[in-house]
């Protein structure tokens, strides 16, 4: 069913190689381990995509069980920092990286901040809802968000009444959550606000207060009737502007930072054809040749979460989630606290004079992880660079393979190789070969250097 | 609990990234230019009130019965305001700003806005930041375009600088890289002897071109340019911080911190022309009174401290500060004791070069546009007046002709 624009890679006569597999697993997750890459190549593109989209209810149940066993005792669910850290832990450990990645996408889309909600548990419940409905039908997701307690606090729905409709949610619903600006009038905002009156919350549950609801007729986007919030959302779902707007956002997050007008239009049509079925849409996208082409490949700038979680996963490193959280926040991204209701702007705005040094600090931090404790911070260096590699060039080539699938300029390789053998008394290849302690230390430092390369952050 | 603060404390002593590789020729050139720079260059500090500040409760029309009628719970009593005239008064928490007004150092421009006001935060911010009401506004903001046209702006990493956590659209430029210094003190770019690893990180971050051959527009090129700016900026800012000596106490608030950084940077004569700060939280849809009072109090105290500091540092005569918000709020309050997005509002221009007083006309509370105050001064007239003072071609920067507002004293 895919339009010619999203014609499958398999029909384009292009091989699904290691770099393409890594690209897929970065975008549809948080960067692969070498074993995952091997498996993707062995199984091929179609099977890899199906695996990404596979049912994961067992794992979901396992996470829920793990959460329940520590919530309220070891884990303070009211503390946003702990809820953030829990989510990061989950991103690192998940066997369904795509579901987690989509959850992050929807969090940036329905951008709700704990700074106003002031309740970590309400936020966690919202994230759980986003995760549960992440790749279902978009309509269902919007309906759920309109009744979500954290959202009702965030955009003031809880105080919106028949006498005094609060238009905050109604406006953002159209401007940012569904059809986008320019596709409705100020009057539509006022009418939609009336439709959502009486949609309140009691503690952490949605509640409908009929006395506060406006049951009169409303005119909304050219239609008229005794609409309530559900009707307003259903009308919004029929707007071609909605599928286009959502498809454009999905493309920018998963595929290309600045997709062409043509790509957005085609993606909008595709999402429309699938009747806003997110899983179907993503399957077509990930199978398409376009997704692996110039417009997309290594064209995004990794968000702090992608950079940190991706690095920890790819290297098989172990770092306490609280540390991951602190590093990510220093890079300018705080989970559960997007800067405003528009979410994170992303891309170039991630990089500035505070956040770039913070990225370098993490590169350094992860490369020196070490502990004698079985559960302590750990970097499996011997698995990344096997001990029998004792020539500087082979060590550099190996790191370039793990981090870049071999895609690294010769000049950079040469510089790093020179660095590996550098001692205080000048270059010494013998020491590097014969002194394992020296070699390990230098290799860790070289890893930090390579994680600091701008190329590594082009995701 | 493992807090962020604790994390920063434990890592504060570490030098994450030392600067190494010696002084680049470019940097040496920047230092040279800066050393010879015109010490009397004018500096504009822009303070954004994010979220849409309620102008009616900031500059209160206390003789207007319609005001109290529309604001049954939020209205501020006549005897509470800080008087500006026999009609208008500042919010009670803005006594410090009122004092500056009495000293003739504040221009209050009334009824500022633009045609066909948009009630979306993002759209309205975009309009103010780009100084354009075009549906497809330019990617560079009005301050970025100012820097792009300013002679020599590329010779210093500091022609423009943002004190916010990310680069505001207003400072996006086509030609000039504008650094963001969220936390000058904790930027963790120690300059003491760099290790070989740190030296290599710097060399590799700034010396390779995009392997994909994107003609300088790819993400890798972008990050390389940013990295270069970071290293250059960090060296100079560290120096600026060490040279700053002041007895002024700033309020311990985010804005107070940003304005203190602004003073450090202005004090160091780095060739800065534009600084950008922001105070967030003005989107007061519910239970507005306390939140708004707290925000305006913080604003007023920070502006006052900044003014005192500049006077002490003997820089006051070349610095002007502009305070704006993307829109005011609806005239009538809502049922949640808050206010919804509105339109026209007041703008403050503060500083010793400012011709103090009330400018423009307070909008009518009777004749409203869709429940909102109707503007009578285009915000670009404010910009034009400021650009003129900065010695920049306002027509070119604003891409159109706007009447210049006489905001400043005749220049000596």
Oligomer: heterodimer
Sketch the major β-sheet of chain A.
2 strands, antiparallel
Specify the number of helices of chain A.
25
Rg of chain B is 22 Å
What brief labels describe this structure?
heterodimer; A: 459 residues; mainly alpha; two-stranded antiparallel ribbon; two-stranded antiparallel sheet; 25 helices; globular; B: 412 residues; alpha/beta; eight-stranded mixed beta sheet; three-stranded antiparallel beta sheet; 12 helices; 11 strands; disordered N terminus
What topology emerges from the helices and strands here?
The complex is a heterodimer of chains A (459) and B (412).
Chain A: H1 18-27, H2 34-43, H3 45-52, H4 57-70, H5 80-93, H6 97-109, H7 114-117, H8 120-132, H9 138-146, H10 149-154, H11 168-177, H12 186-195, E1 199-202, E2 205-208, E3 218-220, E4 223-225, H13 229-237, H14 240-254, H15 261-273, H16 278-287, H17 304-315, H18 321-330, H19 355-367, H20 381-384, H21 392-404, H22 410-420, E5 422-423, E6 426-427, H23 429-434, H24 436-451, H25 454-457
Antiparallel strand pairs in A: 1-2, 3-4, 5-6
Helix pairs in contact in A: 1-2, 2-3, 5-8, 5-17, 5-18, 6-8, 9-13, 11-12, 12-13, 14-15, 17-18, 19-24, 21-22, 21-24
Chain B: H1 4-12, H2 25-35, E1 43-50, E2 59-61, H3 65-70, E3 82-83, E4 88-90, H4 95-102, E5 106-113, H5 121-130, H6 142-149, E6 160-162, H7 196-207, H8 219-243, H9 254-267, E7 274-280, H10 288-312, E8 319-325, E9 345-350, E10 357-359, E11 377-378, H11 379-389, H12 394-398
Parallel strand pairs in B: 1-7, 1-8, 5-10, 5-11, 6-7
Antiparallel strand pairs in B: 2-4, 3-4, 5-9, 8-9
Helix pairs in contact in B: 4-10, 7-8, 8-9, 9-10
